[in-house]
Amino acid sequence: MADSLQPSKLGTKEHWDDVYEEELNNFKEIGDEGEIWFGEESIERMVDWAVENVPFSSNPSTVEIGSGNGTLLFALAEAGYPSTHLSGIDYSPGAVKLARSIAATRNQDVSFNISDFLQDDPPLLPHMQASPEGVWDFVLDKGTFDAIALGAKDENGRSPAMRYPGRINTILKSGGYFLITSCNFTEEELKAQCATSDTRLVYQ
């Protein structure tokens, strides 16, 4: 479980700021769009699942938590999802700058914003209306929960990842979908962590 992992530099904002500062410089100099975390196969699997379960014809309002260079969202746009309904958030300014730069070269209207998911709700897209309940039809995570679980623990020894399921519950619309890919947790561990009596999340 999340509390069993020891803190690592991979769980620090400073690490990711350094990573994306370097990737942003590389993009400016040679057009390299940066690392595809977990590889292209993970992107393909997530897009295939999305197309089957949350079809683009439904125009789902979609947000990726920790979107990095935006690779997953660009793949969704290429698969037919309206780019104006796609949003990515990241707490690293460099990641957001990189994703916006790539979006401009691809002529994609995907939205990218700086936001710390554990602290703030993702900014709404222009077509969305604020609501006291969840507003996102589709929430994605490709490795961000892993990084959060490697963050520094509080004075009671609790990982910041313990706050994660509740935050997903807050932003996800009733009947919406949450899709996560992890390299640190098994399927059963993710189910135990996220689909609890304290959340509305139901495993499928």
Automatic annotation (TrEMBL):
Keyword Isomerase: no
CDD domains: AdoMet_MTases
Pfam families for the chain: Methyltransf_31
Sequence ranges assigned to domain Methyltransferase in this UniProt record: 58-197
Keywords per UniProt: Cytoplasm, Methyltransferase, S-adenosyl-L-methionine, Transferase, Transport
Subcellular location field: Cytoplasm
GO MF annotations in UniProt: protein-lysine N-methyltransferase activity
GO biological process, alphabetically ordered: methylation; vesicle-mediated transport
Enzyme class: transferase
Domain of life, source organism: Eukaryota
Role noted for this protein: S-adenosyl-L-methionine-dependent protein-lysine N-methyltransferase that mono- and dimethylates elongation factor 1-alpha at 'Lys-316'. May play a role in intracellular transport.
Family note: Belongs to the class I-like SAM-binding methyltransferase superfamily. EFM4 family.
Identification of the protein by name: Protein-lysine N-methyltransferase EFM4
Source taxonomy: Eukaryota, Fungi, Dikarya, Basidiomycota, Agaricomycotina
